[in-house]
Amino acid sequence: MQIISRSDGISVEKKEGTKVIYHIFHEFEIHYNEVPAGTTQAWHHHDVIEEVLYILSGELEAYWKEKNKTFKQTVKVGDVVRVENTPHTFINSSSGPAVFVVFRFVPDGADKRHIIKNDKHSD
Fold it and tell me: What is the pLDDT of residues 8-47, one digit of tens each?
């Protein structure tokens, strides 16, 4: 087992005010985000990376584009956002901060649900 403290991460404060702590590993990345009220992230997309957000506190407006249409949905605590490769942005238009964790990895297309669901053994 390996325990990695918050202070071992790469801390970045982005120009729009979002605070991020990156933990980068060989096959995946996890980063913790604190987004202040009133923050708008720049539109962007990823060609290869799969990005999944898990909302821990607050709420965000998720915007994404598919086939020249823009969609919007508010995401709240416990919601999961699977970004895939869609152009997207997040806006915190609430009065408080939003906190979420991002999991980033490069999928290989193999369906591993059976392994993930069943790979637990009593010791």
Answer: 999 999 999 999 999 999 999 999 999 999 999 999 999 9
What ranges in the chain are assigned the alpha helix state H?
113-118
Distance CA 107, CA 46 (A): 12
Secondary structure class of 110 (helix, strand, coil): coil
Give the three-class secondary structure for 106.
coil
Mind listing the domains of the chain with CATH numbers? 18-118 (2.60.120.10)
Count the Cβ atoms, other than its own, within 10 Å of residue 113: 8
CA 79, 83, 87, 89 torsion-angle sign: positive
